[in-house]
Amino acid sequence: MKTSKSLQNNARSLRHNQTETEKFVWNKLRKKQLGYKFSRQYIINNKYIVDFVCLEKKLIIELDGGQHNDNPQDIQRDLSLTNYGYKILRFWNNEIFNNWENCYNRIIEELNK
Predict the structure, then answer these.
(1) How far apart are the C-alpha atoms of 84 and 89, rounded to whole Å?
(2) What is the rounded distance in angstroms from the CA atom of residue 26 to the CA atom of residue 9?
(3) Measured distance CA(21)–CA(68) in Å, rounded
(4) DSSP code of 4?
(5) First to last CA, the chain
(6) Are 33 and 109 contacting, i.e. CB atoms less than 8 angstroms apart?
């Protein structure tokens, strides 16, 4: 199935207009720094754009701001992605900056499973 042009353009735009939190995390994940390749703003099943994904481990990392607080769309999206076999780690933006060590340890723990 071919990915729609608008979805591709949206993913490209998200890669070029990263938030400060996304820039911070990408600098920690890129170039196999954790031993695995991650991609950013990646399209899964021609439906969802995820913040970061390690395809080898089927691990998705999502960074959430206030717009994601109890968002029913996120719940449905996570359920669909889980049904595709992915594990999803969600981190609040402030959690990334205030407690990166804990976030890092959760990512490493999941990669080592």
Answers:
(1) 15
(2) 20
(3) 15
(4) P
(5) 31
(6) no
C-beta separation of 65 from 33 below 8 A: no
- β-pairing, 48-54 vs 59-64, is antiparallel
- Distance, in Å, from the CA atom of 77 to the CA atom of 36, rounded to the nearest integer, reads 24
pLDDT tens digits for range 37-73 = 999 999 999 999 999 999 999 999 999 875 545 667 8
CA dist list (Å): 73 to 52, 94, 97, 105, 113: 18, 22, 25, 28, 28
Q: Closest Cα to residue 29, out of 65, 66, 57?
A: 57
